C-alpha cells in the first residue's frame, strides 16, 4: 500500500520531468523556426539588458542572446543524442559480435574494451581534437571513439546473463542459429538496460561537450555553443551577469532534466 502511494506521488513529478525533456527536444528540433533573430548577426548595441525587445538582452557583440541560447541548446542537445546513439550502436555491435563468435574473438574484444576504459579518455580526446582542429564533426567523432566501451561492457554483461536463461537454452537446443538467436532472444533482453544507461549518460555527454566548447575545442566562433558563450563572457560577470549566466543556466537545466529522467526511467524499469 505504501509503495503504491509512493509511486502515485512520484507520477506527477515524473510527468513534469519528461515534459521538460520533451520541451527541450522540441526546442532543439524547431529552434531555427522560433528564434527571434539571427544568432550570428548583430541586431542592437552590445550589453542591452533583458527587455521586451530582447528577452535575454544582447551579448558583448550585440547579438540577440535568446536566439543564441536556443541555437546553443539545439547544437548541444542534438549532438549529445547523436554521440549516445553512435556509442550505443558501436558498443552494442561489438558486444554482440563477441557473444556470437566467442572464444578468442570475445576475449580480444573484451581486452580492447578494457584498454579504452582504463586510459584517460577525456584528456586524450581533448588532445585529439586540438590536433585535428576544432569543429563539431571532429568533436563528435573523437568523443564517440572513447565513449563506446561503456556500452560494450554493459551489453556484454547483459548478453552473458541472458544466454543462461531457460528460454534461450531451449531455443538453442531447438536449433535456432546464432544470428537469429541473438536478434530475437538475446539482444532485445539487453535493450532496457541499454536504454536506461543511455538516458542517464546524456547528462555526462552534455557536460563533456560543454567542457570542450568552454576550452575552445568546439566549433569556431561565431557558432553559438553554450560552453563557449559562457567562457568568452566570464569577464562580464560582475557588470553584465546575465550574459554568461544564461548559457550556463541552459546547460544546468539540460543536465538536470536528463539526470532526473534517467533516474525515473531506471525506477520504472526496476519496478517491472
Please provide a written account of the structure:
It is built from 9 helices and no strands. It has helices spanning 2-34, 65-101, 103-118, 121-132, 136-163, 166-173, 178-214, 226-232, 242-271. The protein is elongated, with a radius of gyration of 22 Å. The model is unreliable at 1-9 (pLDDT under 50).
What attributes characterize this protein structure?
272 residues; MetI-like fold; disordered N terminus; mainly alpha
In short:
With 272 residues, this protein is mainly alpha-helical.
Task: Describe the SSE topology.
Blueprint: H1 2-34, H2 65-101, H3 103-118, H4 121-132, H5 136-163, H6 166-173, H7 178-214, H8 226-232, H9 242-271
Q: What is the H/E order?
A: HHHHHHHHH
Structural class of the helices, strands and pairings?
mainly alpha
User: What overall form do the CA principal axes indicate?
Assistant: elongated
CATH superfamily: MetI-like
Measured as a percent range, the helix fraction is: over 70%
Q: Give a count of the beta strands, DSSP E runs of length 2 or more.
A: 0
What is the average of the pLDDT values?
86
- Distance from N terminus to C terminus (CA atoms, Å) equals 17 Å
* Integer tally of domains: 1
Largest sheet: none
Q: How many H/I helices? A: 9
Using only C-alpha atoms, the radius of gyration works out to 22 Å
| Spans of at least 5 consecutive residues with low confidence | 1-9
The fraction of residues in strands falls at under 5%
CATH architecture: Orthogonal Bundle
- The CATH topology label is MetI-like fold
Would you state the CATH class? Mainly Alpha
